[in-house]
UniProtKB/TrEMBL annotation:
Pfam families: Inhibitor_I9 (PF05922)
PANTHER family reported in the protein's UniProt record: PROTEASE B INHIBITOR 2
InterPro entries assigned: PBI_I9, S8pro/Inhibitor_I9, S8pro/Inhibitor_I9_sf
The protein, known as: Inhibitor I9 domain-containing protein
Family according to the record: Belongs to the protease inhibitor I9 family.
GO molecular function, one term: endopeptidase inhibitor activity
Domain Inhibitor I9 stretches: 6-77
GO biological process, one term: vacuole fusion, non-autophagic
Length: 80
């Protein structure tokens, strides 16, 4: 079984929900798991969070429609 990691995949402006659907399907078919879609509803971000096999991650990196991919994690803030 391939190792996996949790990532946020953000697409460039102008990428449609249908195109993002296609990428989400490919991630799932590769053994990943798309958790949250950010382009639907409030439209926070044009992308999704997913667990992605490291063997498939290279297929997404450098893709012309993807703006960036970053590790997903907890962010905390501290008031001054």
């Amino acid at each position: 079984m391939s190792e996996t990691g949790k990532f946020i995949v953000v697409f460039k402006d102008g990428v449609t929900s249908a195109q993002i659907d296609d990428y989400a399907s490919k991630v799932n078919q590769a053994g990943g798991d798309v958790k949250d879609r950010f382009d639907q509803g409030a439209g926070i971000l044009n992308g999704f969070s997913a667990t992605i096999p490291t063997s498939f991650l290279g297929n997404l990196q450098g893709d012309d429609l993807i703006s960036y991919i970053e590790p997903d994690g907890v962010v905390t803030t501290q008031a001054l």
